[in-house]
Amino acid sequence: MREALFIKQNAEKWKGFENMESKDPDLLAECFISVTDDLAYAKTFYPKSKTTAYLNGLASRFHQSLYRNKKERLSRLSAFWRYELPLIFKSREKELLYSLIIFVVFCLVGVVSARSDSSFVRLIMGDEYIKMTNDNIEKGDPFGVYKSHNEFAMFILIAFNNIAVSFYEFVSGIFLSVGTIFLLIKNGIMLGSFQYYFFSKGLGWNSVLVIWIHGTLEISAVVIAGAAGLTLGNSILFPKTYTRMVSVKKGALEGLKIIIGLIPVFICAAFLEGFITRHTEMPVWTSVSILILSLSFIIWYVIIYPSVLTRKLEKGLAPKISDPS
């Protein structure tokens, strides 16, 4: 991107930073992150320009405001979870929506396929799993698979596997998003046929109350990981005003941050699957409460909070806001 265009695109934002009076640490932290991102870009492409020197001074001012008297009001880690990641979710709303649509559509494909062909579920899930589940159903414990291993061992294995799968889903986006789309299709069909199998056995509601205790977070994270892969792939396909290399670096970094942000979600889902899901006899209200809390958290953190934060930032950058000193 030419320097003149870079300045034109960001001049109004920088002017707002200069005139800021707010001492809100949340707002200062977000502005500091935005300025340092612009500074990093300027250092790469215009290392000796006045723009770089200007941004360096602006970043220093925000840094001093944040860390005055040597007290770190916001750690970098805190800023990541509270500001960076939610704002990435906001900027990648289209990728999140596309990922969700692809996944849901092929979930339905899995349901329709399993309903029309009784051998389809066996093909997707494997003979061994179907035989084991049928045996458990006959024993009166259809979800006995969740009780078959040590809790801690299950927790570690599932957490590691899910994190690895999400990273693979992200990296597959390098193939122009095709790899990520393929994995979303595959996982969607698997989930749809898997869920239909229990409904066909008259265990649909029970399966929701048991499996979705951990599945709500786990499946949501799979969809979000798909958005990370699409972010990487789309950065190659649609560089916009950036050079393709800069666009790819930006997309890869944002996608990687999304995957890092999903790690606690996968760990929590693995904990639920390893330690909680096995208690299939728990009261219905307990299962429903976990499901509602899990879904509410995902909707709030990925959709609602990023929008609220963005509106707050836009209002905070109004032209008449003054200097924090």
Automatic annotation (TrEMBL):
The lineage of its organism: Bacteria, Pseudomonadati, Bacteroidota, Sphingobacteriia, Sphingobacteriales. Keywords: Membrane, Transmembrane, Transmembrane helix. This is Stage II sporulation protein M. The chain crosses the membrane at residues 96-114, 152-184, 219-238, 258-276, 282-305. InterPro entries: SpoIIM-like. It holds the Pfam family SpoIIM.
